[in-house]
Specification:
By secondary structure, the chain is an alpha/beta fold. The chain has 14 helices and nine strands. Helix 9 packs antiparallel against helix 10, helix 9 crosses helix 13 and helix 11 packs across helix 12. Bound molecules: fe (ii) ion. Fe (ii) ion (FE2) binds next to helix 6 and helix 10.
């Protein structure tokens, strides 16, 4: 067995108050003018004001770009890159959930490589390194702050482009659970289920390894235990810290082991109907587990054990049903109850959605190859 692996993660600081080191890190990275990338809701929560204040104190100039919507669009990336270049910025700080961070990565790609963001879709398509970049996540789920992934919606063709490259790993992630208490219940639930999906897909991925498995399993246990508690006690920082750590560990795992069919299908679905990414994952996850379980029994049994399955490991049917029940119950507990038809998918959309999911790069590392017919069946069942 060839066990030679390359693992890429950024420098990260985790703990309460970590975000207040942004000014010092910007100085260390040689920043003179920062593009502060965020969105309106994060601004309203006061997180941007904090970081802008720190930059002013350290004598670093900045300009704010906040015209970013959920599921960031290609034209938002182009507008941000134009602002970066015209303002003569030399560093990017992203403050927010997955959308501002992914958009910031897109801006960073265009800042040094030019062209359109669609030119960089796929795996290892970015020739030039990006400018210095610091990420401050304000949700616990996407892990875009530590990952090799940037997901940008192609607004004309209405699907999410997956950009996967070590070039988009930021220099520094400042991971601070204090930012999480401004999330509402739905955002807490959907981002938490996104993190759970990252961990599960990384665990069973054909590109997984012992190092990524350790982090994936730890993330799964933390989310099962603490996500419901975060919804019950949203102000409790200890619970938020555990889910933040879970998100980080899931991010380390999936960034290096990649993902699978849940994300491939969720990218197609979310890009088409502009739906919350975590909700798409949460709804699809039980269906893909059912499909994949027989194709990586060892890893799915590890997953079943993490969920508390104590039965006979040779009883694949019971183990599979146990995990699926647990995930369905967790979805209910955190308030994710819609099926994909209630989310807006029509039967006539399924052929196009299935084809886009089939071509998504996340499909490559699914435990078993899925045909367009297999994907269509998942859509119909979901
Ligand atoms: Fe995700």
């Amino acid at each position: 067995m060839n066990d030679l692996r390359r693992i890429v993660i950024p420098e990260f600081m985790i703990g309460r108050g970590a975000r207040f080191n942004a000014g010092g890190y910007a100085l260390n990275l040689g920043a003179k003018k920062v593009l502060l990338v965020t969105d309106e809701n994060v601004q309203k929560a006061g997180h941007v004001e904090d970081i802008a204040g720190l930059l002013s104190e350290t004598g670093v100039d900045y300009v704010i770009y906040d015209r970013i919507t959920p599921n960031p669009k290609d034209y938002e990336v182009s507008d941000g890159a134009e602002l970066y270049i015209n303002s003569k910025c030399d560093c990017i700080i992203a403050v927010g959930g997955g959308s501002p961070i992914d958009c910031a990565k897109g801006i960073a790609i265009l800042a040094t490589n030019g062209g359109n963001i669609s030119d960089y879709e796929g795996v290892d398509m970015i020739p030039e390194p990006i400018p210095p970049m610091i990420c401050i996540p304000t949700t616990a789920g996407t892990s875009a702050d530590v990952s090799q992934f940037a997901i940008i919606t192609n607004s004309k063709l209405k699907y999410k482009m997956a950009i996967i490259s070590k070039m988009v790993v930021p220099d520094v992630a400042l991971i601070d659970a204090e930012t999480l208490t401004t999330m509402d219940a739905h955002l807490t639930a959907t981002t938490g289920m996104d993190a759970l999906t990252h961990a599960i897909e990384a665990l069973v991925s054909t590109a997984s390894c012992t190092f990524t498995d350790i982090h994936a399993i730890d993330a799964i246990r933390l989310i099962i235990n603490y996500l419901p508690k975060c919804l019950q006690y949203p102000e409790n920082l200890d619970f938020r810290t555990e889910v933040m750590r879970a998100s980080l560990e899931a991010g380390i795992a999936f960034s290096n082991a990649s993902l699978g069919a849940v994300h491939a299908i969720a990218h197609s679905l979310g890009g088409f109907l502009d739906l919350p990414h975590g909700e798409c994952n949460a709804v699809l996850l039980p269906h893909i587990i059912k499909h994949n379980f027989p194709h990586n029994i060892e890893k799915y049994i590890m997953l079943a054990r993490a969920f508390g399955f104590t039965g006979d490991v040779t009883d694949i049917k019971s183990a599979s049903e146990f995990v699926i029940d647990k995930i369905n119950n967790l979805n209910k507990e955190v308030g994710i109850t819609r099926n994909i038809s209630q989310m807006g998918v029509k039967l006539s959309d399924i052929a196009t959605l299935s084809e886009k999911a089939f071509n998504d790069p996340c499909m490559i590392t699914n435990p078993v190859e899925m045909s367009i017919n297999d994907i269509t069946e998942v859509f119909e069942n979901a």
